[in-house]
Amino acid sequence: MSYVFSPPPVATVAVADSPDRFPVRRIFCVGRNYAAHAREMGKDPERELPFFFSKPADAVVDAGETVAYPPQTENFHYEAELVVAIGTGGRDIPEADALTHVWGYAIGNDLTRRDLQLQARDKGRPWDFGKAFDRSAVIGPVHPVAKVGYPEKGSIRLTVNGETKQDADLNELIWSVPEVISFLSHSVTLAPGDLIMTGTPAGVGALVPGDVCVVSIEGLGEISTRIGPRA
């Protein structure tokens, strides 16, 4: 078999303390998974069923890279997130078994064209242009569970130019990591290489060219992203 053109390279993210790379298959994102963030977005934080949106695999950006201010937005936001890297696939995964499917954890920054997202939300349209644009998923090195375990609590924090903007604890997740994995696997079959961005705390806000955004999660270190000139 031959292709009509060369297939694109596999999207990957770094692995902590290793030259290896983690191949990315899909990126799932949990919407409004911290109560305070739900409130700041004008929504009820009650524990209703989780919902998801997605980003393309090739939206991933390594920590330390510069991300150009994206086109078609005047309200470009940061969102600090814990990222779950799936190493063993499955469907209809029981919550009690969910963590056995996790290969590792990483720090993420779900970059968002907020004005486009809110316009789509208010019109009942998909969020793709607000969430799934080029270089919109900054994801730091994946730390294997053999080294970091399964974080259930600990600080998640984001600063812009040294000023704290988001400051919360992982135990504030409305839906825990095992619950998210189990729920998602009842809708789609998970596979090795899937990444799950688990939601952001309150305090989201705008970035401008020249800003340096740092996300830290207790036990996973920190990642830094500089915002470049408009693309």
TrEMBL record:
Residues 27-227 form the Fumarylacetoacetase-like C-terminal domain. One of its GO terms (molecular function) is metal ion binding. Keywords: Hydrolase, Metal-binding, Plasmid. It comes from the Bacteria. Pfam families: FAA_hydrolase. InterPro entries: Fumarylacetoacetase-like_C, Fumarylacetoacetase_C_sf. SUPFAM superfamilies: FAH. This is Fumarylacetoacetate hydrolase family protein. It comes from Sinorhizobium sojae CCBAU 05684.
